[in-house]
Amino acid sequence: MSNTNLTFLKEIVILGFDENLSIRILIFTTLLVGYVVTIVGNCLIIVLVLVSPRLHSPMYFFLCHLAITDMIVPSDVIPNLLYVTLSGRGTLSILGCLTQLFFFGISANTECLLLTVMSYDRYLAICRPLHYKSIMSHKLQVLLTTCCWVVGFSLSLMVTCHILTLSFCGTNTINHFFCDLDPVLDLSCSDTFVIDIEVLVVGILIIFLACVFIVVTYVCIFHAILGSPITTGRKKVFSTCTSHLTVVCTYYGTLFANYLSPVSGRIKYLSLLNTVMTPLLNPVIYSLRNQEIRSVLKTYIPFQ
């Protein structure tokens, strides 16, 4: 069995939630409603940005891409999770499991980078308002978002391809609700030292450095705001900062709670935070805290 290669492992069993049927039905209903609201909310933001000239600015261009990443994760995880929750357990082929892990990695990496780009955009708007339009040109917007997607795709592909070289033996059961990285690596009987180093390096580059960059830009933003009178225009720009900062705190808070939690037994429940809750909350945060989006929404939905 120690020589069993990944190609000989036909499927992986996902245990999901070990609750009684009534609790699982409640979880199923909550997940289904949350998934529908997530997709509708993020699609609504994209449509509003596309159809409203008032939202044709760099911040909302980046927000559209953020909404796309927020639809990838739940669409990647929740459909199979609904089946697993209702039936008590489910199976995925090896290809399906690695595909799920691959798209989850793309979304997580790209969202970290997009939040970093959005913080840079807010820094330019607040700290260098006279040069903002000349610096943050449409060409730069496209270049930055393209880099986010390419880097996110490449890093996820690198890790997924490396997993393909591992040998797996023993049980094929994952005590989780989707093919996350750690549960998949736990099935391997190969030495995972190299891939652990890869993941650590990616984590430092994508999560830690991005987080540091965001903190530095917001220190500069708050310093600029506190050091000069806040005009009406600056108040308007700062309102988008509060929305973005709330999303950043929510995203990194759930990320750290999930992957830095010492309570491994509850890891799959904590994973619900960044796979289900964050994509659901992001459009709600931008809708409730952003005056421009609320105003455009009222224009197209008069009964609000």
Automatic annotation (TrEMBL):
Domain of life: Eukaryota
Subcellular location: Cell membrane
Transmembrane segments: 25-51, 58-78, 98-120, 140-165, 200-225
The G-protein coupled receptors family 1 profile domain, residue ranges: 41-286
Signal sequence residues: none
Keyword Transmembrane recorded: yes
Keyword list, A-Z: Cell membrane, Disulfide bond, G-protein coupled receptor, Glycoprotein, Membrane, Olfaction, Receptor, Sensory transduction, Transducer, Transmembrane, Transmembrane helix
GO CC, alphabetical: plasma membrane
Example of a GO MF term: G protein-coupled receptor activity
Major location category of this protein: membrane
Membrane topology: Multi-pass membrane protein
Family: Belongs to the G-protein coupled receptor 1 family.
Protein name in UniProt: Olfactory receptor
Species for this entry: Hymenochirus boettgeri
